[in-house]
Structures are given as C-alpha cells and as structure tokens.
Design a protein that fits this description.
The complex is a heterodimer. By secondary structure, chain A is of the alpha/beta class. Chain A has a single domain, classed as Aldolase class I (TIM Barrel). Chain A has eleven helices and eight strands. An eight-stranded parallel β-sheet of chain A has the order 7-6-5-4-3-2-1-8. Chain A is globular and about 55 Å long. By secondary structure, chain B is α/β, with parallel strands linked by helices. Chain B is built from ten helices and eleven strands. In chain B, the strands form three sheets. A five-stranded parallel β-sheet of chain B has the order 8-7-6-9-10, sandwiched between helices. A three-stranded mixed β-sheet of chain B has the order 1-3-2. In chain B, a hairpin with a 2-residue loop joins β2 and β3. The radius of gyration of chain B is 19 Å and the shape is globular. The chains are: A alpha/beta, B alpha/beta. Chains A and B meet through loops of A and loops of B.
Chain lengths: 294, 270
C-alpha cells in the first residue's frame, strides 16, 4: 500500500477549488439537477427511525415532487437493516434500489461474525446494496490485511447485492490514507467506495472525493473493472451537488456520470434540488413549505 | 502638512446582519456616492436570511423585542449629525426616533389589544392570540420617517423584512443603527436599487408571506406585483398613494395588518 504515490495536498485542494468555480446555467443546470436527483441515495440513519417514517421516505424516493410527474425518482433509499423490510414493501418492482448500512455501522467495532450476520440479514430482508464500514482502528494501526480480509468476507456475504465500502475519510487523517484505503477497498472487491458515514464531524469534502475519483479512474485503467464513488454527508445544496458533478466529469470522466457509478448520500439535499428544479420550471423562487419534510 | 485624503463611503446592502456588495457587482452613483444596485439574487439571499432569522425573532419575548427597538431608537438619536449631512432635518430624525420608541412600547401590549379570551359554550378556554405573518417584502419610501414607519410595525410583532429602498444613503445609514442595536442579523434586510427590477422576485417568491407596497408609485407595477403575490396567496398591503403622510399618528393598523390570529381551545378542569 505504501508503494502508492503520495497525494499533493495543496494541489488537490487547489484543483477542487478551481473546479468549484464553473458556472453551470439554464439547460445545463436543469440537466445537472435531474441527474443529481437520479443519483441521490435518500438516507435516514437515526436511532429514532420508525417503519412509518421510512415508508414515507420510500414514497418520496419514488416520486420526489408529487406536483411534477416529470421529476425522476432517486437512485436508492438507504436505511438501517431493521428498517429494510418496511422499505422493501414500498419499493418492490420500482427500480429504486434499497441500500442498507451493515457491519456495525457507524463504528465498525464489532467481531467479524456479527458483521457478516448483519450483512446476511440485510440482504435476506431485501436490500440489494450494502453500505459497510471499514475498521478504521485496524487501518490506522497499519493492519491492512485485516481490513482487506474483512471486506472480502463481507463481499462474499453480500451475494448478489452491491457492496459500498465506507472509508470514513474524516477519521483517516490524510489524503495519502484516503488513497490507500480506496485502493485497498477496490482490490478487495468493492463495487462502490463511499466517503463517510455522516456520523463524524468531517464528512464528504470535494478534495477527498477528487482523490477517490482519481483512484477509481486509475483502478479501471489498470484492471479494467469500474468502481463507483459515493460522497455522503454534508452535501446540502444544489450548488454543492453541481460542483461534485463537474469534478466527476473532469476527473474520472463521463462514464461515471450515471447513477450506476456515482451517488450522493444525502437527505436534505433532495429538497434543495427540488426547489431549484421548481425555480427553473416555474420561473420564480420556490419555498421549503411546498416540499415534504422527510 | 499635506491635505488629508477624503474618506469616501460606499453604501452597500444590508443582508443577514452584514453589509455585502451586490452579488451582481453593480453600483449606481447617487449624489456623488457609490451605492449598490441589488439584483434578484441579492433578493433571494435576503429572503433566506430573513427566513432563518424569523423563528428566533418571533420566539423572543415581546418585552425583549421592545427593548431592542428602543435600543434602535437610542442609536438613531446618536446619529443626528450624519443624517443631517444626508439632508434629513432634525425634526424628521426626532419624529423617526419617537416613532421607534412608540412602536417599542407596543411590543408587549399589542397581544392584549388584538388577542382575546373568547366566551364559548362548553368546558373550554378559548384563546385568540396574534402571531406574526412571517417574512414580509417591503417596498419602502425613500424618506427616513417613511422607512421607519413601514419597517418598525412589521418587525415589532415578530415578522422579519426584506426592504427595497430608493433612498439608499438614508436607508443604509439607518441599517447601521440597526446593526448596532442588538437586532439579530436577518430581521431587517435592506436592498437598494430599482424596485421595478427586484420587487417582482419578492412578489413571486414562494417563501415570502406578505408584501407591503406602501411606496409603489407606479400603478401598473403595483397591479403586477399584486397579481404575482396572489400566486402564493400573500397578504398584500396596497400603495398608500402620493398623499401618504407619515407624520400623523399611524394607529394600530400598520401592526395588525401583518398579524394572523391563532385561536386555541383548551379543556378546563385539568
């Protein structure tokens, strides 16, 4: 892992800042907003989640803006394993994916058997995407083998379900570590690499996502296998989302500009996207009172 | 000794407690001063700031809102010289200060006048209490007294305002008194520029609850704005007309016009 080249911290941050200044307007903006909506993993990961709440969220995922039938559905709904059966009922046959966090989310501090059982239960209950967390403790102490083996084991437990590996970049400390963790997860069989759980103060940032996009680009060049990227946490505005889309296009390329290869883990982002969409279609500013609180 | 360089003042906008330039970068030269000309995006930002400030301001005790308005009067009183320099007479500054004090006094009394314990046939308390309408868009008169007379009654009851002013130097100097009055940022936002350009964006904005057209002189513009406002069922205060006189006793109407009445039933005997 230490054979990977180091990340130029100043360079990557300057590059991300430069990509943030692009002006995306009118029809491009409309297309970007619809694409971003289709990329949202509508997420609720609260201790206070109830089956009623997640059902309502799933209904929103199918039809985000009830006032406008031309508004596309989101990519997936992301919930805790216990909430999977309730969501599966609503989403069945809709094409909207059902993601479940697993493996002792968000800390990942549990024995491997517990993590595997967690994963199998979620898949059996109907989840077709699994968001796992890596053991940051093991990663940071240099025990890469342990992290690798865990991902391989969880991938096997997933069966047909897609595996997203959460690196929790806010706890990894450096861009070098982010790059190493990305490669480690991809070699171990991840279908997606995801920035954060949203449960630590530092969540997704544009430079971190840029480093991960470089990793998936280089990984495909080397192995021929394409891996997706999912920034999660802290992306709340349409402006932010569009900055990410620009970064995807400029870093990994257009192949990643699809819900199959790029996702936003978010909850409040969707309402802002819908408000901006309404502004573009109606010509006047939209207000939050006209959209559901999740 | 060389002559001292002149310190020229730029009059910027007042949004969310700060004094930013217009995002459009535009300025107008008004009586030799550079003043910002607001764009629709400044209006959008101002509405966001006003909406953010509204629950906290409405949730502050009426007594506290009164104190802050009185503090605003103190600050205004202390700026006499600056307003005189802008051509505002001493009498007008006095009248504006007095108006602020007058409204400050109403903060914790209005509920007694407009609220009621209603008699009902049944074992219930039935109470009506006034509540603020929310975010109010105001097209304000250019004069100091006019501006104070439309903004103070709106905010004293817990509304927050986005003001479009055609008297930029006076409006922004007044904003400087508010910025130092413990008035939370975002309760009053002032945009300077052309109402015909910016006001339609406030009128059609889904997140603005009321529109005060007091100072709109152009009847066609007023009609357009009212039509736009109807799209989201905004409360609209019609233009006051050319003979609007802010020196007379305003009465309660400017305050009650921007209030809703909430009535609650509460069972007796618990």
């Amino acid at each position: 892992m230490h054979g990977l080249p180091g990340v130029d911290k100043v360079g990557v941050e300057a590059r991300a800042a430069a990509l943030s200044t692009r002006s995306i307007k009118t029809t491009s903006k409309a297309a970007a907003i619809d694409l971003a909506i289709r990329m949202v993993d509508l997420t609720t990961l609260e201790g206070a989640d109830t089956t009623g709440k997640v059902r309502a969220l799933a209904a929103k995922a199918l039809r985000p803006d009830p006032a406008d039938p031309s508004c596309p559905p989101v990519a997936a709904v992301c919930v805790y394993p216990a909430m999977v059966p309730a969501v599966a009922e609503v989403l069945r046959g809709s094409g909207v994916h059902l993601a479940s966090v697993a493996t002792a989310f968000p800390s990942g501090q549990a024995p491997l058997e517990v993590k595997l059982a967690d994963t199998r239960d979620a898949v059996a209950a109907g989840a077709d995407e699994i968001d796992m967390v890596i053991s940051r403790g093991a990663f940071l102490s240099g025990d890469y083998r342990h992290v690798y083996d865990e991902i391989v084991a969880v991938k096997e437990a997933c069966g047909p379900a897609h595996l997203k590996v959460i690196l929790e970049t806010g706890e990894l400390g450096t861009y070098d570590n982010v790059r190493r963790a990305s490669w480690l997860a991809m070699w171990a069989g991840a279908d997606f690499i995801k920035t954060s759980t949203g449960k630590v103060p530092v969540a997704a940032t544009l430079p971190v996502t840029l480093v991960m996009l470089e990793a998936v680009r280089d990984f495909r060049a080397q192995t021929g296998r394409q891996v997706g990227v999912k920034p999660a946490g802290g992306i709340r505005t349409t402006k932010d989302a569009i900055k990410y889309l620009v970064t995807v296009a400029e870093t990994a390329g257009d192949d990643w500009l699809s819900p199959d290869w790029f996702r936003f883990g978010a909850s409040s982002l969707l309402n802002d996207l819908l408000m901006q969409r309404t502004k573009l279609t109606t010509g006047h500013y939209a207000g939050p009172d006209y959209f559901t609180l999740d | 000794m060389s002559e001292r360089l002149k310190v020229r003042k730029t009059y910027k906008l007042y949004i969310g407690g700060k004094f930013p330039r217009s995002e459009s970068g535009r300025t107008d030269l008004v009586d030799g001063d550079n003043v910002a000309r607001a764009s629709r995006k400044d209006a959008r930002d101002a509405v966001v700031a006003a909406r953010k400030a509204q629950p906290g301001w409405a949730g502050a005790t009426a007594y506290n809102r009164g104190q802050i308005l009185y503090r605003a009067a103190e600050m205004l009183e202390a700026r006499r010289a600056e307003f005189k320099h802008l051509g505002v007479s001493g009498e007008e500054v006095s009248a504006s200060t007095d108006r602020l004090v007058w409204y400050a006094g109403w903060a914790d009394k209005l509920a007694q006048v407009t609220g009621n314990a209603n008699p009902v046939a049944g074992p219930f308390f039935n109470l009506s209490a006034p509540e603020p309408t929310g975010v109010v868009g105001v097209i304000a008169p250019p004069s100091l007294l006019g501006l104070v007379s439309v903004v103070a009654p709106a905010i004293v009851t817990g509304n927050t305002v986005v003001v479009i002013s055609t008297g930029p130097q006076v409006a922004i100097t007044l904003a400087e008194t508010w910025a130092t009055s413990d008035l939370p940022g975002g309760v009053v936002n002032i945009l300077t520029g052309d109402p015909a350009e910016v006001a339609p964006w406030l009128a059609s904005h889904d997140d603005v609850n009321a529109l005060d057209l007091t100072a709109v002189a152009d009847a066609a513009l007023a009609a357009d704005l009212e039509r736009e406002a109807a799209g989201t069922l905004k409360r609209v205060l019609r233009p006051a007309g050319a003979e609007a006189d802010f020196t007379t006793d305003p009465g309660l109407r400017p305050m009650t016009a921007l209030l809703e009445t909430k009535t609650v039933w509460h069972p007796k005997g618990f």
